[in-house]
Amino acid sequence: MEKMTARMLLPVATLLIGATWLWLGIYEYGFWLKGPGGGFFPAIVGGLMILASVVSLFQEMNKKGFGYKWVTALPLAACVLILVFSQVFGMLVSVFVYLIGWLKLFEKYSWKSTIAVSAGTMAFIYGAFVKWLQIPFPKGLVFQLLQ
């Protein structure tokens, strides 16, 4: 086997996650108890993750060269930053700042378009999830201190 590259780490990680969910679904949550049990869906998804991970791993093993660009890690880094900032400033503020940053810096939208799309998206999220469905998003430490 060739040496492990950075692009092989994600399929290996998803393989381990899929194996964990498959095991939990079958042995811990009850896969089939006179019909689909609580572990039915986690086991199916875990099995599909294992299959997709093995296919992806073999594809990466057959590639020549490294070819990994740091830009491909930006969405993952942005998700981690949203999670961190949502604990400090709240989920809605963090997503709003993310949208502005992504649209302006990476998609190269004008300020007018960036603000319009970000504000419209946040209005939809607030109206649909906070007001209509009444889903409690994390408020963050700053807003908890202000209350």
UniProtKB/TrEMBL annotation:
<feature type="transmembrane region" description="Helical">
    <location>
        <begin position="39"/>
        <end position="58"/>
    </location>
</feature>
<keyword id="KW-1133">Transmembrane helix</keyword>
<dbReference type="Pfam" id="PF07331">
    <property type="entry name" value="TctB"/>
</dbReference>
<feature type="transmembrane region" description="Helical">
    <location>
        <begin position="109"/>
        <end position="129"/>
    </location>
</feature>
<feature type="domain" description="DUF1468">
    <location>
        <begin position="12"/>
        <end position="138"/>
    </location>
</feature>
<dbReference type="InterPro" id="IPR009936">
    <property type="entry name" value="DUF1468"/>
</dbReference>
<keyword id="KW-0812">Transmembrane</keyword>
<feature type="transmembrane region" description="Helical">
    <location>
        <begin position="70"/>
        <end position="103"/>
    </location>
</feature>
<protein>
    <submittedName>
        <fullName>Tripartite tricarboxylate transporter TctB family protein</fullName>
    </submittedName>
</protein>
<keyword id="KW-0472">Membrane</keyword>
<feature type="transmembrane region" description="Helical">
    <location>
        <begin position="9"/>
        <end position="27"/>
    </location>
</feature>
